[in-house]
Write the C-alpha cells for this entry.
Amino acid sequence: MSERQVRLSIEGLHKGYGAGAARKEVISDLTFDVHAGEFVCIVGPSGAGKTTLLKCLTGLHPASSGAVRLDGKVVDGPPRQMALVLQEYTRSLMPWLTVEKNVRLPLANLKIGKAEREQRITDALREVGLSDVRTSYPWQLSGGMQQRVAIARALAYRPEVLVMDEPFASVDAQTRADLEDLMLKVRQDFGITIVLVTHDIDEAVYLSDRVVVVTKGPCTVDEIIPVELPFPRDQIETKSDPRFVDLRARVFSRIKASA
Amino acid sequence: MTRRLSLVALELWLPVVVLLGWWLWSAGAAEPFFPPLQEILTRFREMWLFEQFVSDVLPSLRNMAVGFGIASVVGIAVGLVLARVRLLREAFEPLMHFVRATPGVALVPIFILLLGFGPSMKISIIATAAVFPTIIATMDGVRSADPVLLDISRAYQLNRRQRVTKVLLPSAGPQIFAGLQVSLQVAFVVMIASEMLGSTEGIGALTLLAQQSFAVTDMWSGIVLLGLLGYLVNLLFLLARGRVLHWYDGARKAAKE
C-alpha cells in the first residue's frame, strides 16, 4: 500500500469553536493519509466530532490549523474532485426535481457535452439500479432507493474522492447490506477513492482497506487498522471469517477504551 | 366516481341552500334594502353581461392583474435580496413591518394626491399595498432553507444563479405562494377601495354610485359580481399554485402515508 499514490492527506488538523477559555477543541492534531483507490472508514464513538471532521475534509468548514490536501493541493473550499453523500437522504436530494434532474443538476457547470452528460446520468443510474425510476420524484421512493439516487448523483459527477457521512444509518438492515455491497461494486467499477464515516464497526471492517479509529473529545486518530480480508467480500462469508471476527473485536476494544 | 360526486355534493349543498333561502325570503319581502334575488340577478345580467363588462370590469381586472404582477416580481426579488444580505435586512426589516401594518386602503388618499385618478394611481396603490406579504414570506422562506441542501449546493459547486433558481427559490416555494395568496387578497381589496374612493369607472365605483343614488338592486348586483370575481381569482391562483408546487403537495401526501 505504501508505494501507492497519496490522494488525500490530513496533516495536523485542528478545529475548534469559540475563543479564550470558552474555546472548545473538536478536532486535535489529526493526521492520516488516504491512497488513490483506497476505501477508508473512519469509525469512532458517537459525539467524537466525526461530522465536523467530514466538513473539514470536504472544505465546507475551514480548518483552525493544519491542512487537508487533495493530490497535494490544499483544500480551502469544496474541491471539484470530491463528491458528497450524507446520512439525511430526504434532506440532501431536491424534492422538486425528478431523480434524473437531481443527478443532472451538478453536471450543468462541468465542461462536458450534452451527449456525455446524458451518458453519465444513464451510467450512474444503471450502476445503482435505478434505470426504471428516472422520472420519479425522490419522495416516491423508499429510503434505500433515495440514498441510491444520492450515490448516482455523486458518481455522475465523476469525483476522484467520494466522501460519505453515515450514509446507511437511516435504512433497515437488509437495505444497508445491499448498499454496502453496492459501494464495494462502485469502488471496483469506477476506481474511485472512498472515505466513509460511520459508527458501525461491522460496516467499517466489512468495507475498508483500512479502518481509522478516532477518539472522542477532541477527535484525534487512535489507531489505523489495516483490513487484510480478501475481495470480493461477501456479507455471510466475510463476516464469518475468523479474521473478520478478530478485527471487529480489535476495533471494538479500541473504541470502548477511548469512549 | 360516486365518491367524487358525493364530494361535490358535500361542497355544494350549503351554498345551494343559502341561495334558495335568499331567493324565497327576498321574493315576498317588501324590504327596500333587500330587493328580491330574482331582480338582482336580472340587473346582474343587464349590467355585467356584457355591456359594462368591457367598460368597467375589464379595466378593474387589468389594474389588479398588473398591480399584483408587479407586487409578485418585486416582492420575490426584494425578499430574496433581504434574505441573503444581512446588512440590508437589519436596516429595512423594522421599517417594513411598520409599513406592512399600515392598511393599504389608508394609502389611497396619498396616491390620489400624487398620481391623480387614472389607472396609474390604481396600479401603483395595488402594487404598493400587495408587495409586503410577498416580501416577508419570501424572506422567511429563503432564510429557512435547509442547511443540508446548502452544503450539498456548495459541495457540488453550484454557482450563484443555480443556487438561487434551483435551490433557494424552489425550497422557499410553499412559503412564497402563501405570501402571494395574501398579496392577492390585498390587491383585490385595494382594487375595489381605489375605485370607491377616487373614480367614476370600475366595479367599485359603480357599486358605490348605485348605493349613493339609491339604486339598491344595482348595488347588490355589483356586490354579487365582486364576490364571484374574488372566488374565481382565488380559484385561478390555487390552480397555478398546484401546478408549481405539485412536488410539495405530493411529498406531504407521501409523508403522511
Notes: The CA atoms of residues 37 and 182 of chain A lie 16 Å apart. Chain A touches chain B at residues 55, 58, 60, 77-78, 80, 82-84, 86, 88, 91-92, 94-97, 105-106, 108-109, 137, 139-140, 153, 157 (CB under 8 Å). Strands of chain A lie at 6-17, 24-35, 39-43, 65-70, 73-74, 82-85, 161-165, 193-198, 210-214, 221-226. Chain A has a mean pLDDT of 92.
